[in-house]
Amino acid sequence: MSSSAPQETGRQRLWSVDEHLADVLAAIRPLEPIELQLLDAQGCVLVEDVTVPVALPPFDNSSMDGYAVRVADVQGASEEFPAVLTVIGDVAAGSGELPTVGPGQSARIMTGAPLPPGAEAVVPVEWTDGGTGGGAASGMTPASAAPEGAAGEVRVHRAAEARAHVRARGSDVRAGDLALAAGTVLGPPQIALLAAIGRGTVRVRPRPRVVVLSTGSELVQPGEPLAAGTIYDSNSFALAAAARDAGAIAYRVGAVSDDADTLRATIEDQLIRADLLVTTGGVSVGAYDVVKEALTSVGGSGGSGVSGGSGGSGGSGEEDVQGGGVDFRKLAMQPGKPQGFGSIGPDHTPLLALPGNPVSSYVSFELFVRPAIRALMGLPDVNRPSVRAELKADKALGSPAGRRQFLRGKYDAGSGTVSPVGGSGSHLIAALAHADSLMVVPEDVTSVEPGAELEVILLG
Fold it and tell me: What is the DSSP letter of 394?
């Protein structure tokens, strides 16, 4: 998307989506690295390259339960003319002292056990009689139940090539190889690799702690009865879940009533556990828009001063109020026109104030909060992936002039098409639940005909 300068519309200054995002990201600094235990580091970003100290696997080992043999001893073996070998013992995973396999000999070997000296290949137990003297075996007799199964003779019914069913030392990674590069997000496979090469701790940027507060005296917690004029608080749940999805540790605070003093006290209480604060509701021009009221004066209460974003210069007019360094802006977008951004407290904790309508709130999170979380993690690519897709619809889609519109959509990767889901209303949360993408209509486009190509932001 191309950047555009703030627009002047009468006494109201409009910021572009790109300019507001740039202002937010300019004020975000990645969190300081810390050393964490492996499981605590899940979801975090590596800050250093990790090299392999020892080869993986560290020794030649068996990939099957069976018998370690010499190739010459089983050459030409068949069910009619099996190779009969003397079994000299067991080699289990974790075995230390290993028997040496000589001519005409074999050793029972378990998956993951080291290949004993003299052996050149492993024949699966299913290729043998399992030492029973009968037909093809389906498994081995447990050593504890029948110790004699570790000795005696075994009949091998098939030949084996050299190194058959042997996992070579260093076949996964070799000593000195790069295991994981700095910037890698640690998921379960990466945690497994770190453990496999012997790393008990790793240096990472921690997952950001995001505190989500919703505001509104009309909000009731799910599970409680609704009174007249009340609705359930969905925004704080949606945003907390979205923060977790972005990689953060999310703390959801119950809805705060429309009282500035209460909101100020709640925000100040939450600073101790927040790397980022997100509020929803109370940022427009109504008489009860408590977030704007509270953050206008929070700089003078209890020493938890507020400073604005690094790129923000405030604005002119009643609609662009700068209070205590927190900028309340109008953006040239739909939904999500009213936005607030600044930082608060002695540590200058970033704060993003989102609108209260459910779809406006969620779209604003995707466009501004998610990138902020990813920037705190130190990730270079902070935005959702986007594609170009053909609009599949029964009629043209309208869009307001001068506004970048974000419409809910269903993307079909197979056909390269996207279909609208629900209407454009910012309260239509049911449609949002069935969408997997956002269709982007540029500011200078007022109508999009079926078959036209659009930018589509993928949410999945």
Answer: S
| Non-local CB neighbours of 227 within 8 Å, separated by 6+ positions | 220
**Cα dist from 383 to 277, 353, 372, 420, whole Å:** 19, 19, 9, 22
Biggest alpha carbon–alpha carbon distance for the chain: 98
Residue 223's Cβ-count burial label (10 Å; 0-12, 13-18, 19+) is exposed
Rounded Cα–Cα distance for residues 273 and 416 (Å):
43
173: tokens are 């990674």
The pLDDT score that the predictor gives to residue 72 is: 96
Residue 145's pLDDT is 60
Burial class of residue 388 in the structure, from the number of CB atoms within 10 Å of its CB (0-12 exposed, 13-18 middle, 19+ buried): exposed
Which residues are within 8 A (CB) of 48 and not within 5 positions of it... i.e. 6 or more apart? 182, 203
User: Which neighbouring-strand residues pair with 163?
Assistant: none
Rounded-to-integer distance, Cα 216 and Cα 354, Å? 13
Query: What count of Cα atoms within 13 Å lies in the side-chain half-sphere of residue 311?
Result: 14
Q: How many residues does the chain have?
A: 460
Identity at 251, one-letter amino acid code: Y
**Separation between Cα atoms, residue 280 and residue 211, nearest integer Å:** 11
Distance CA 246, CA 145 (A): 52
| pTM score of the predicted model | 0.80
Local structure of residue 299 (DSSP, 8 states): G
Cis peptide before 335 (omega within 30 of 0): yes
Q: What is the mean pLDDT of residues 290-305?
A: 55
CB contact set of 33 (below 8 Å; sequence gap of 6+): 47, 203, 204, 205
With residue 238 as reference, give the H or E element that holds it.
Answer: helix 235-246
Per-residue pLDDT tens digits for 134-155: 777 767 776 666 555 456 899 9
Answer yes or no: is pLDDT of 10 > 60. Answer: no
pLDDT, position 149: 47
Average pLDDT estimate for 31-53: 96
pLDDT for 12: 58
In this predicted model, what pLDDT tens digit does every residue of 418-448 receive, in sequence order?
999 976 554 567 888 899 999 999 999 999 9
